Structure formats: C-alpha cells, structure tokens
C-alpha cells in the first residue's frame, strides 16, 4: 500500500541546503511513501481579508495538505525560529477559521543548518505551532542535521554511510508513525 506525503521546503533560496536534504530523504525513504512538494513561494502574505474568497494559491495549498496522508516539513532555522515564508504557508493552511487543513494530519519536522544546533530551535517553535493546529507529530527520533557539503550531492545522494543510515531510519520511523495515526483517523485506508 502507498501513502502520500506532502512535503514543505521552508527555504526559497535557489541553493537551499534544505531542498538538498529533502532530495536525500526522498531517496532514502521506504518505498511505500510517495512524495509531492507543496509549494509556498507564490503565496501572498496571509490576511483574514482573504477568508471570504481564498486566492487559487491558497486553495491549492489547502487541497494539497488535505489530499496528503502525511506532511513533512524540511526547513532551515531563521533567527532561531520558523522562516517567514513557511510560517505564512502554515497560516494559509490553518484558515479560514474552522477549516484547519492540518488537523489530525501526521507530521514530521526535520531541518539542516551549517551550524551545530541543526535547526533545533526552529523545530521547537514548529512543535508549538503544530500542537495548536492539532497535528500529531513524530516525537522521536529527532533529526537536527548539521549540513556538510561534502556529505550531500546536489541530487540528494549521501556519501557518508552513517548519515545515510540515520536519515533512512528517520524516514522508516516517520512512515510507521504516519501509518499508526492513519489507523486511528482513517481506518478504512490502511
Ligand atoms: C540564517 N541561518 C541560521 N542558521 C541557524 O542555524 N540558526 C539561525 O537562527 C539562523 N538564522 C538565519 C537567519 C537568516 C535570515 C538566514 C538567511 C540564515 C543560516 C542558515 O542556516 C543557512 O543560511 C542555511 O543555508 C539556510 O538553509 P537553506 O535556505 O540553504 O535551506
């Protein structure tokens, strides 16, 4: 059986190390997971003025989240928090009030930074946001990736076996978590 995973890359940068990490995760993920990126770069800045008539980008985002069995966030840390573009996308997905698209969606959070903290503070912020949005989260393993360019090829190939093993294990645990949540929220699906 296949499970659809909508993934967010929290960086808009052309040379994003987190986009590279997302490619590595897709390569290493178990075969039952099918990935579709949920794009964020063309979303206007959210305001509740849009609630009466969501623009096509906002509607497409909500539909993509709702069509996914699980959501994966692959994001940098900006100034010890969630990048604005990603937070904006989450705000779009959470509204209009009463139509929060993240509710009961199993989520995973992972990110890479050149620094040693490896996006830990961003991930902590994300956990508060996702708790408020009633989105179950993979609690363990945690994955704080210190990005070393010599370990990751541009297409997501991972040259260091212990890093590959860690990321493979993370994705196996994420897949098992998604299936555990679906067994409760969508029992007919499993
Ligand atoms: C950063 N960077 C950064 N790194 C970190 O570990 N903690 C932080 O709080 C910040 N803050 C921060 C703010 C802003 C505005 C920028 C542009 C950068 C560095 C960041 O980890 C580095 O630029 C990564 O390459 C960003 O990931 P992407 O965009 O390449 O995926």
**Alpha-carbon distance between the two ends:** 8 Å
CATH class: Alpha Beta
Q: How is the biggest beta sheet arranged?
A: 5 strands, parallel
Order the strands across the largest sheet as they lie in space. 2-1-3-4-5
Q: Unreliable stretches, pLDDT < 50, 5 or more residues? A: none
Please state the CA-atom Rg, rounded to the nearest Å: 16 Å
Look at the structure and give the mean pLDDT: 97
Overall number of strands: 5
Organism: Georgenia muralis
GO molecular function: FMN binding; oxidoreductase activity
Domain NADPH-dependent FMN reductase-like: 5-146
GO cellular component, one term: cytosol
Describe this protein's structure.
This protein is an alpha/beta fold and 190 residues long. The protein has one domain: Rossmann fold (3-Layer(aba) Sandwich). Helices cover 38% and strands 14% of the residues. It contains 5 helices and 5 strands. It has helices spanning 17-28, 56-67, 84-94, 120-132, 161-185, and strands at 3-9, 33-37, 70-74, 107-113, 144-146. Helix 3 (84-94) links the parallel strand 3 (70-74) and strand 4. Helix 2 (56-67) packs across helix 3. The radius of gyration is 16 Å and the shape is globular. The chain starts with a strand and ends in a 5-residue tail after the last helix. The model has no long low-confidence stretch (mean pLDDT 97). It binds ligand FNR. The site of ligand FNR has 14 residues, from helix 1.
């Amino acid at each position: 059986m296949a499970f659809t995973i909508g993934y967010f890359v929290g960086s808009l940068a052309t040379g994003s190390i987190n986009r590279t990490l997302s490619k590595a995760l897709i390569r290493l993920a178990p075969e039952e997971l099918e990935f579709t990126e949920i794009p964020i770069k063309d979303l206007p800045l959210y305001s509740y003025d849009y609630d009466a008539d969501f623009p096509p980008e906002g509607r497409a985002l909500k539909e993509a989240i709702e069509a996914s069995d699980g959501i994966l966030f692959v994001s940098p840390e900006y100034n010890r928090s969630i990048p604005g573009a990603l937070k904006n996308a989450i705000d779009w997905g959470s509204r209009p009030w009463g139509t929060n698209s993240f509710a009961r969606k199993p989520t995973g959070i992972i990110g890479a930074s050149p620094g040693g903290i490896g996006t830990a503070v961003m991930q902590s912020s994300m956990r508060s946001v996702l708790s408020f949005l009633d989105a179950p989260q993979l609690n363990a393993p945690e994955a704080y990736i210190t990005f070393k360019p010599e370990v990751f090829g541009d297409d997501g190939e991972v040259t260091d076996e212990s890093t590959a093993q860690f990321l493979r294990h993370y994705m196996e645990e994420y897949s098992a978590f998604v299936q555990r949540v679906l067994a409760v929220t969508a029992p007919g699906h499993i």
